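Collaborator request, handled under Task 6.
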Amino acid sequence: MKQWVTNQDGLDKLRLVDAPEPSGLKEGEVLVKIHSVSLNFRDTEVCMGEYDHHKTIDTGSEVVPTSDCCGVVVKLGPGASDLLKEGDRVASTFCQTHLTGQIVEKDMASGMGLPLNGCLTQYRVFPAYGLVKVPDYLTYDQAACLPVAAVTAWMGINSFQPIGQPLRGKDKFVLLQGTGGVAVTGLQIAKALGLTTIITSSSDKKLELAKGLGADYTINYKNTPDWDEVVLNLTGGRGADVILECGGAQTLAKSFRCVAFGGLISAIGYVSGKEDAVSNRINANLLALCRNVTFKGIINGPKDRFEEVLRFYESERIEPVIDRTFEFEEADKALQYLFSGGHFGKIVVKVQ
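Structure tokens returned to the collaborator:
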């Protein structure tokens, strides 16, 4: 079989190699024929050796990249039939041992695409508990878009909500930063929940696409650097109840200024940088105290919340937004395209 590997030394140095097809399944394992893989910003960091902010994860070694896939179970190991059967269409979970509740350090060792080998391969062995069945209405490409983007967006909005009781209501404002996979997925989820949405981008074209998905308000942050003031104006001075904070260094201070009192900022990404500018050093304690804010890091979510997401998707018939698909032999180009930032929504690699 074929699979892509990286030594975490650059997006231009991925290699498509031959590898033996897995055999000899252990207790509770299944063999999955992978049909589709979707890409995340984290995958580019892994390939460039820059995913280095978790002490429990080593960088520099060879690894099969990517974490998100959808495929079909083709073989069961002993004891796996309690959870799955041959022919089941399944998607991977991000941290394979994170089954419920808050993630803990030991779960990071089961992260797909680093430190574990990921799914940019034609076949892969999984523990049966590390997979979820996907709804019939979703294609392989669509279902592959959900493990990181949908679960992260869902948890960004609902991490403090009990399972089965998501945040709802048009009086609740959600601010989504950018138009990458998590933000666009979050927009779809928030609209299906009946929430009022504000989305930012530097591209008017992308903002028009967001309007087509139902965005209530759009802000071009390039043309409007003080976008936090706009958010306050749009919310009648109250601020956004939830912010999916994907920007990082260049956006966080403004997020603290435009979140509602008692609101939630979900720390998801850092596409604008990992280090604050020298002139922007207000202490995080003060930023949080100013509006009595909850600032929560989101490392995806557990399996039971992914299953909650899938039930919600099926009930609302949400179809993930796919910007572009690539053939398996073009996976390196797909990662480079993702890194360029020109996409709206998700990027998919067709494996089979």
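The cover message to the collaborator said: "The longest helix spans residues 303-316. The chain has two domains: 2-148+300-350, 152-297. Please let us know whether this matches your experimental observations."
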